[in-house]
Amino acid sequence: MKKQTPGLADAYALSTPEDSRQLYAEWATSYDQDFAAGQDYLLPGLTAKAFAAAGGTGPVLDAGAGTGLCGQALRALGVEPVDATDISAAMLAEALRKDAYRDVIEADLMEGIPVPRGSYRGVVSSGTFTHGHLGPEVLPALLRVAAPDAWFALSVNAKFYEKAGFAAAFDRLLQGQWIKSLTLPELRIYGPRASGAHKDDTAIIALFQKV
Protein backbone atom coordinates (compact mmCIF):
# COMPACT_ATOMS: atom_id res chain seq x y z
CA MET A 1 0.00 0.00 0.00
CA LYS A 2 1.37 3.40 -1.03
CA LYS A 3 2.18 5.75 1.84
CA GLN A 4 0.02 8.85 1.78
CA THR A 5 1.78 12.12 0.95
CA PRO A 6 1.99 14.45 3.99
CA GLY A 7 -0.32 17.44 3.99
CA LEU A 8 -1.49 20.52 5.85
CA ALA A 9 -3.36 18.53 8.51
CA ASP A 10 -0.12 16.75 9.40
CA ALA A 11 1.75 20.06 9.62
CA TYR A 12 -0.90 21.63 11.86
CA ALA A 13 -0.72 18.59 14.18
CA LEU A 14 3.04 18.90 14.87
CA SER A 15 4.06 19.15 18.50
CA THR A 16 7.85 18.74 18.79
CA PRO A 17 10.96 19.78 16.81
CA GLU A 18 11.64 16.11 16.04
CA ASP A 19 8.10 15.75 14.65
CA SER A 20 8.83 18.71 12.37
CA ARG A 21 12.09 17.24 11.12
CA GLN A 22 10.42 13.91 10.37
CA LEU A 23 7.36 15.33 8.60
CA TYR A 24 9.33 17.74 6.43
CA ALA A 25 11.91 15.09 5.55
CA GLU A 26 9.00 13.08 4.11
CA TRP A 27 7.33 16.08 2.47
CA ALA A 28 10.32 17.96 1.06
CA THR A 29 10.51 16.50 -2.45
CA SER A 30 6.76 16.72 -3.14
CA TYR A 31 5.96 19.96 -1.26
CA ASP A 32 6.25 22.42 -4.14
CA GLN A 33 4.17 20.39 -6.58
CA ASP A 34 1.61 18.67 -4.33
CA PHE A 35 1.03 21.47 -1.86
CA ALA A 36 2.27 24.84 -3.14
CA ALA A 37 1.17 24.43 -6.75
CA GLY A 38 -1.76 22.13 -6.00
CA GLN A 39 -3.25 24.47 -3.39
CA ASP A 40 -2.42 27.73 -5.20
CA TYR A 41 -0.24 28.80 -2.26
CA LEU A 42 0.12 32.58 -2.51
CA LEU A 43 1.59 33.43 0.88
CA PRO A 44 5.35 33.25 0.14
CA GLY A 45 5.01 35.62 -2.81
CA LEU A 46 2.73 38.00 -0.90
CA THR A 47 5.13 38.08 2.05
CA ALA A 48 8.04 38.91 -0.27
CA LYS A 49 6.01 41.65 -1.99
CA ALA A 50 5.02 43.19 1.35
CA PHE A 51 8.67 43.25 2.44
CA ALA A 52 9.86 44.85 -0.79
CA ALA A 53 7.01 47.39 -0.84
CA ALA A 54 7.86 48.50 2.70
CA GLY A 55 11.39 49.29 1.55
CA GLY A 56 13.08 46.11 2.75
CA THR A 57 16.56 45.41 1.42
CA GLY A 58 19.21 42.70 1.71
CA PRO A 59 20.93 40.96 3.23
CA VAL A 60 17.74 39.18 4.33
CA LEU A 61 17.18 36.16 6.55
CA ASP A 62 14.31 33.90 5.46
CA ALA A 63 13.28 32.24 8.74
CA GLY A 64 11.56 28.88 8.37
CA ALA A 65 12.43 29.00 4.68
CA GLY A 66 11.20 25.51 3.83
CA THR A 67 11.75 24.76 0.16
CA GLY A 68 12.65 28.37 -0.57
CA LEU A 69 9.49 29.80 -2.13
CA CYS A 70 9.75 33.15 -0.32
CA GLY A 71 13.46 33.50 -1.11
CA GLN A 72 12.73 32.75 -4.74
CA ALA A 73 10.05 35.47 -4.73
CA LEU A 74 12.41 37.97 -3.09
CA ARG A 75 15.09 37.35 -5.68
CA ALA A 76 12.54 37.83 -8.48
CA LEU A 77 11.80 41.24 -6.94
CA GLY A 78 15.49 42.13 -6.93
CA VAL A 79 15.96 41.74 -3.16
CA GLU A 80 19.23 39.95 -2.36
CA PRO A 81 21.32 38.43 -0.93
CA VAL A 82 19.03 36.14 1.04
CA ASP A 83 20.04 33.44 3.54
CA ALA A 84 17.69 30.61 4.52
CA THR A 85 17.25 29.01 7.92
CA ASP A 86 15.02 26.03 8.71
CA ILE A 87 14.84 23.11 11.14
CA SER A 88 14.61 20.66 8.23
CA ALA A 89 17.79 19.76 6.35
CA ALA A 90 15.65 18.06 3.69
CA MET A 91 13.65 21.23 3.02
CA LEU A 92 16.83 23.32 2.89
CA ALA A 93 18.25 20.89 0.31
CA GLU A 94 15.23 21.64 -1.87
CA ALA A 95 15.68 25.38 -1.25
CA LEU A 96 19.28 25.20 -2.44
CA ARG A 97 18.13 23.78 -5.78
CA LYS A 98 16.31 27.06 -6.49
CA ASP A 99 19.59 28.98 -6.48
CA ALA A 100 17.88 31.83 -4.60
CA TYR A 101 20.02 31.78 -1.45
CA ARG A 102 23.53 32.89 -0.58
CA ASP A 103 23.67 30.43 2.31
CA VAL A 104 21.47 27.99 4.24
CA ILE A 105 21.55 27.51 8.01
CA GLU A 106 20.01 24.45 9.65
CA ALA A 107 18.69 25.70 13.00
CA ASP A 108 15.83 25.37 15.48
CA LEU A 109 14.58 28.93 15.95
CA MET A 110 13.66 28.06 19.54
CA GLU A 111 17.38 27.63 20.21
CA GLY A 112 18.48 30.73 18.30
CA ILE A 113 20.26 31.31 15.00
CA PRO A 114 24.04 30.80 14.91
CA VAL A 115 25.02 34.07 13.23
CA PRO A 116 26.45 37.29 14.70
CA ARG A 117 24.12 39.88 16.20
CA GLY A 118 22.87 42.43 13.66
CA SER A 119 23.82 40.37 10.58
CA TYR A 120 20.73 41.19 8.48
CA ARG A 121 19.02 44.30 7.09
CA GLY A 122 15.76 42.39 6.81
CA VAL A 123 13.93 39.30 8.07
CA VAL A 124 11.05 37.51 6.35
CA SER A 125 9.04 34.46 7.31
CA SER A 126 6.21 32.78 5.42
CA GLY A 127 4.21 29.86 6.79
CA THR A 128 6.29 29.31 9.93
CA PHE A 129 4.02 31.07 12.43
CA THR A 130 1.02 28.78 12.28
CA HIS A 131 -0.72 25.90 14.03
CA GLY A 132 1.71 23.24 15.25
CA HIS A 133 4.71 25.44 14.56
CA LEU A 134 6.30 28.45 16.23
CA GLY A 135 4.79 31.30 18.23
CA PRO A 136 5.96 34.74 19.36
CA GLU A 137 8.54 33.25 21.73
CA VAL A 138 11.06 33.24 18.84
CA LEU A 139 10.72 36.95 18.05
CA PRO A 140 13.70 37.92 20.30
CA ALA A 141 15.95 35.50 18.38
CA LEU A 142 14.91 37.10 15.09
CA LEU A 143 15.39 40.61 16.46
CA ARG A 144 18.88 39.68 17.67
CA VAL A 145 20.14 38.90 14.17
CA ALA A 146 18.64 42.08 12.66
CA ALA A 147 20.46 45.39 12.39
CA PRO A 148 18.84 48.66 13.58
CA ASP A 149 16.08 49.82 11.18
CA ALA A 150 15.88 46.35 9.56
CA TRP A 151 12.49 45.62 8.05
CA PHE A 152 10.51 42.52 9.04
CA ALA A 153 7.67 40.83 7.13
CA LEU A 154 6.39 37.89 9.16
CA SER A 155 3.26 36.04 8.04
CA VAL A 156 1.10 34.67 10.86
CA ASN A 157 -1.96 32.47 10.32
CA ALA A 158 -4.84 34.75 11.35
CA LYS A 159 -6.54 32.11 13.53
CA PHE A 160 -3.22 31.42 15.25
CA TYR A 161 -2.40 35.12 15.75
CA GLU A 162 -4.67 35.71 18.76
CA LYS A 163 -4.48 32.16 20.08
CA ALA A 164 -0.67 32.22 20.27
CA GLY A 165 -0.44 35.70 21.81
CA PHE A 166 1.10 37.65 18.94
CA ALA A 167 -0.96 40.79 19.62
CA ALA A 168 0.32 40.99 23.20
CA ALA A 169 3.88 40.21 22.09
CA PHE A 170 3.92 43.01 19.53
CA ASP A 171 2.41 45.41 22.08
CA ARG A 172 5.27 44.60 24.48
CA LEU A 173 7.87 45.11 21.76
CA LEU A 174 6.32 48.45 20.76
CA GLN A 175 6.08 49.67 24.36
CA GLY A 176 9.65 48.55 25.05
CA GLN A 177 10.77 50.43 21.91
CA TRP A 178 12.25 47.32 20.33
CA ILE A 179 10.18 47.80 17.15
CA LYS A 180 8.40 50.62 15.30
CA SER A 181 6.12 51.27 12.31
CA LEU A 182 3.99 48.15 12.90
CA THR A 183 1.22 47.45 10.39
CA LEU A 184 -0.83 44.27 10.15
CA PRO A 185 -2.38 43.73 6.69
CA GLU A 186 -4.49 40.59 6.35
CA LEU A 187 -4.30 38.56 3.14
CA ARG A 188 -5.59 35.30 1.70
CA ILE A 189 -3.13 32.42 2.01
CA TYR A 190 -4.41 30.50 -1.02
CA GLY A 191 -5.69 31.40 -4.47
CA PRO A 192 -8.92 30.36 -6.20
CA ARG A 193 -7.65 26.88 -7.17
CA ALA A 194 -7.32 25.81 -3.50
CA SER A 195 -9.62 23.19 -2.01
CA GLY A 196 -10.26 21.65 1.38
CA ALA A 197 -10.99 22.90 4.87
CA HIS A 198 -8.34 25.63 4.87
CA LYS A 199 -8.84 27.09 1.39
CA ASP A 200 -10.27 30.35 2.77
CA ASP A 201 -7.67 30.82 5.52
CA THR A 202 -6.01 34.20 5.87
CA ALA A 203 -2.71 35.40 7.27
CA ILE A 204 -1.67 38.59 8.97
CA ILE A 205 1.61 40.01 7.67
CA ALA A 206 3.36 41.70 10.58
CA LEU A 207 5.35 44.49 8.95
CA PHE A 208 7.66 46.48 11.23
CA GLN A 209 11.15 47.84 11.73
CA LYS A 210 13.63 47.08 14.47
CA VAL A 211 14.48 50.20 16.44
Describe this entry's structure for a reader.
The termini are far apart. β2, α5 and β3 form a beta-alpha-beta unit. This protein is an alpha/beta fold. Strands 1, 2, 3, 4, 5, 6, 7 and 8 form an eight-stranded mixed sheet that branches. The model has no long low-confidence stretch (mean pLDDT 87). It has a single domain, classed as Rossmann fold (3-Layer(aba) Sandwich). It is 36% helix and 25% strand. α2 runs parallel beside α5 and α3 crosses α4.
Question: What is this structure's SSE topology?
Answer:
Layout: H1 8-12, H2 17-37, H3 43-54, E1 60-63, H4 69-76, E2 82-86, H5 89-97, E3 103-106, E4 120-129, H6 139-144, E5 146-157, H7 158-163, H8 166-175, E6 179-183, E7 186-188, E8 202-210
Parallel strand pairs: 1-2, 1-4, 2-3, 4-5
Antiparallel strand pairs: 5-8, 6-8, 7-8
Q: Report the top-level CATH class.
A: Alpha Beta
Helix content bin: 25-40%
The CATH homologous superfamily corresponds to Vaccinia Virus protein VP39
Secondary structural class: alpha/beta
Largest sheet: 8 strands, mixed
The total strand number stands at 8
Q: Could you give the distance between the termini?
A: 55 Å
Characterize the overall form: globular
Q: Helix count?
A: 8
Count of the domains = 1
Point out poorly predicted stretches: none
Question: Which architecture would the CATH scheme give at its second level?
Answer: 3-Layer(aba) Sandwich
What's the Cα radius of gyration? 16 Å
